[in-house]
Amino acid sequence: MPRITEIVDSYIAAWNETDPERRRMLVERSFSEDASYVDPLMSGEGVERIDAMIAAAQQQFPGHRFSLAAAPMPTTTVSASAGHSLSTAASRSPAASISQWSPSTAAYAP
Fold this sequence. Notes:
Elements: H1 4-16, H2 20-30, E1 36-38, E2 43-45, H3 46-60, E3 67-68, E4 77-79, E5 85-87, E6 100-102, E7 107-108
Parallel strand pairs: 3-6
Antiparallel strand pairs: 1-2, 1-5, 4-5, 6-7
Helix pairs in contact: 1-2, 2-3
């Protein structure tokens, strides 16, 4: 099983990757096939739809980059105060906000 830091790194990289093939590889590394991603503006179920959701967000916010505000903390469900959340079995992936996500406080930092 991957370490949480590896999952977090590939998750952030997936949101920043604009090459479709490399982004898909990172999404596959970050999410289980049955994962769900839900936030107030969009959602995706499964690797294919999550990848498409990330691609759509990149088109809507060209040039935007994600960064990690603090070291990840293992948990099974993580929610950010901005409404971005992700729940998957065995903590497959953390949540991130549009700009930064702080796992220690779950705070949104634009």
